[in-house]
Amino acid sequence: MAYYVYQITNTVNGKIYIGAHAGDPLDSYMGSGNKIKRAISKYGRAAFQKTILHTCATPQEMFSVEAELVDEAFVQRPDTYNLAVGGTGFAPGHQIRLGMKHTEETKAKMRRQRTPEARQRMSLAAKSHIGEQNNFFGKKHTQDAKEKMSAAAKGHKRCVGRQYSLETRIKMSESAKRRGSNRRPKGAE
Known about the structure:
The chain is an alpha+beta fold. It contains seven helices and three strands.
């Protein structure tokens, strides 16, 4: 697997995004940040150019190079799409908040979201779309709409014909057995 640090350049306005990725350098990956994704949506993929800045041997090296390039000063520049400093990207076993702690203010906000009053408000909001309150209640899709939905769903393979390795099948089986052990047998009180 290749580990590399890349730069995405918007050819329309000159803004750049620097990121790290594990995979084929020639793939179509253009970054995961919200700003870069919105820009690609706005200007179209053709307006962006990908340049490989560094190829690395390990994920640690890749994140280290990204951290050197995408520092706080880089993030603050007006000509970048980066929202956060580099070196803390997503990779197997690597978490974005690794070593970071929530502030007391953030912890207090999270606690407020779980108050009984807040939970009651969320419950009422969810229930406001059930039964007669649902906009589609009592209505039916037309035959034409059903045909369009059917046509749109055709061709999607999802997991049809997917071959799982023996190791994966064993893991899936064990997981299903664990879930089944938590269920009550039929007729049990």
